[in-house]
């Protein structure tokens, strides 16, 4: 790790007003290389499938057809059917909606609250920093899946309870990363220059400090999205997430496990492959963004 802070500020102009560089960095990290480009294309394809699911799915994902139970792949059913005759391709496409929406909500909630609390802790310091640090330590003691299981036991299985529980589990990770970065950022000359100009602490944080932390937050959120997807898929596999007949990839893996011994692993296999591909693609995008960002800082 170089001596220079990860998010070092650019030189303060002669007028004493620092230039924002957060969104400029976001443009610079777009060049993620060929591996990152392929991974980003996969991510965009999955998002497009989720958004356009009602129009591109060949069949109703919940339509039961007893005459086509475990049908092999065909023109009518490109991936075959499950134990009730439902089209697997349609269920995979529609399943992308809940499977992507859940991690997205977890990431947005954790990133938003984590940034607010992390920056507030770094800016105010003192007793507030100590209290928030202890709260984060307590949340760190509980794995996300355990919190989600507890939430499902208290509030019942479904979509919302695991999302809220995982958001609380992911929050301290983001908060600590943002607190550490904000501590380094606030010691840079442009913060003092703004203070001398009479700019309030709230304005400095909102207009300058937080935008300068955005590239780091983007990388953190991208990697966190992949972990949230895995955790939510595991919770759905345990039967504590979205409930049948609503399709999600974790539910499909769980529903198909009973047919594996009967020689029909297709449902579980296809859903598991999509989960792995999605998580790997998201993590590759996050890693390539992080690598490119470090190169940009060192250059």
Principal-axes geometry comes out as elongated
Low-confidence stretches: 1-30, 295-299
User: What Rg, in angstroms, do the CA atoms define?
Assistant: 23 Å
Termini separation (Å)?
14 Å
Total number of helices? 11
Q: Percent of residues in helical segments?
A: over 70%
The fourth-level CATH homologous superfamily is MetI-like
Membrane topology: Multi-pass membrane protein
Pfam family, one: BPD_transp_1
Main location: membrane
Transmembrane segments: 29-57, 100-123, 135-153, 159-178, 216-240, 268-286
Question: How would you explain this protein's 3D organization?
Answer:
The chain is mainly α and 299 residues long. The chain has helices at 22-28, 33-51, 53-56, 88-124, 126-140, 144-155, 160-186, 189-196, 201-237, 249-260, 266-298. It has a single domain (27-52, 93-298), classed as MetI-like (MetI-like fold, Orthogonal Bundle), CATH 1.10.3720.10. The chain is built from 11 helices and no strands. Helix 4 (88-124) runs antiparallel to helix 5 (126-140), helix 6 packs across helix 7 and helix 6 crosses helix 9. Residues 1-30 and 295-299 have low confidence and may be disordered.
What is this structure, in a nutshell?
With 299 residues, this protein is an all-alpha fold.
What are the defining features of this structure?
BP-dependent_transpt_permease, membrane, transmembrane helix, disordered N terminus, MetI-like_sf, 299 residues, MetI-like fold, mainly alpha, cell membrane
């Amino acid at each position: 790790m170089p001596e220079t802070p990860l998010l070092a500020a650019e030189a303060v102009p002669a007028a004493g007003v620092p230039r924002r560089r957060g969104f400029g960095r976001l443009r610079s990290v777009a060049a993620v290389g060929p591996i990152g480009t392929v991974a980003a294309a996969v991510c965009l394809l999955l998002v497009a499938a989720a958004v356009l699911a009602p129009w591109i799915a060949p069949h109703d994902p919940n339509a039961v057809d007893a005459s086509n139970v475990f049908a092999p792949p065909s023109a009518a059913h490109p991936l075959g059917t499950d134990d009730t005759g439902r089209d697997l391709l349609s269920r995979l496409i529609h399943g992308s909606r809940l499977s992507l929406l859940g991690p997205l909500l977890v990431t947005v909630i954790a990133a938003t609250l984590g940034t607010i609390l992390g920056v507030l802790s770094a800016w105010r310091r003192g007793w507030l920093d100590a209290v928030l640090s202890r709260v984060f330590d307590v949340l760190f003691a509980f794995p996300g899946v355990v919190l989600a299981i507890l939430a499902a036991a208290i509030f019942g299985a479904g979509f919302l309870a695991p999302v809220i529980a995982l958001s609380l589990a992911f929050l301290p990770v983001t908060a600590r990363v943002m607190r550490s970065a904000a501590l380094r950022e606030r010691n840079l000359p442009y913060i003092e220059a703004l203070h001398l100009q009479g700019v309030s602490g709230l304005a400095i944080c909102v207009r300058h400090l937080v935008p300068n932390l955005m590239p780091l937050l983007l990388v953190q959120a991208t990697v966190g999205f992949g972990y949230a997807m895995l955790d939510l898929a595991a919770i759905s596999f345990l039967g504590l997430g979205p409930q049948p007949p609503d399709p999600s990839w974790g539910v499909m893996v769980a529903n198909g496990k009973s047919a594996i011994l009967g020689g029909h692993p297709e449902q579980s296999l296809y859903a598991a492959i999509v989960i792995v591909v999605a998580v790997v693609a998201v993590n590759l995008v996050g890693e390539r963004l992080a690598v490119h960002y470090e190169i940009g800082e060192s250059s």
